[in-house]
Amino acid sequence: MNPGYISYWLLTIMAILLFTGWWKWLADDVRPRHIAILAAGCILLSNIVVPFDFLNENLGGISLTVCWLGVWSIAILALRPVEGSLQRFYLFFAALLAGIMGGWLRMLYTNDPVLIVMDATADAAILIGLTASLSALSRASLLFGVVTLASIAEPMLVGSLLPASSVKPITIGSLAWWDSYLLAWFTARIVVLIARGTKAVTAKWFTRAAGEGEGGV
C-alpha cells in the first residue's frame, strides 16, 4: 500500500462526519476554530523538515508539522482542566506508555516478521490507539494529546534502539508517519465511542431492570 493512502481515506471519512452533523461524536469538546488553526499550521509547515540525524543516524528528520502538533498536544495536556495534578502526570505517562507499546511491536516485527497481522506500521498504530484510549476516555482533546505524543515518541524509540542496518532512516512527519498517526487516533476514538455506547446501554438496562423490580414489589 502506498504511503498516504490510509491518511487520505481517514481524512475523507472525518471530513464527511464533521460536516454531516457528527461533530460531537468525532471532535467532542474541540472547537471548530481550533481545528481550523491546527489544520492551517499543518498545511503551511508540511514541506519543512529539520534534520534529526545528529541525534541518531536512524532518524532522518522531523517535519515542523509534527513539532506544531507536539506543541499543541503538550499545551493541551498541561493546561486543560483535569481532576488534579496527578491526573495530568498520568496523561503524559500514558502517552509515553502508548509510544513504548507501539515501538515494542515494531521492534518485535523487525526481529520476527512472521508475526505481522496486517502491516507493521498499521499494527503498531492500532496498538497505540488501543493503549491511548484506555487513558483519556473523557475528552477528545486529551485523547488527541496522548495519541500525538505517543506517535512522536514511537519512531524515536524505534530509531534509538534498533541498529542502523535493520531500519531505513525515519522521517517523523512523512506520509507513512501520517498513516500511522491518523490510524492510531481513529482507533482510539472508535474504542472510546464503543465504551461510551456500552456504558449508556448498560446504565439504561439496569435502570429499566430496577424499575421493573420496584413495580413488581
TrEMBL record:
Species whose genome carries this gene: Paenibacillus curdlanolyticus YK9
Protein name: Uncharacterized protein
Residues that span the membrane, as ranges: 6-23, 35-55, 61-82, 89-109, 115-135, 142-163, 175-195
Keywords: Membrane, Transmembrane, Transmembrane helix
Superkingdom as given in the UniProt entry: Bacteria
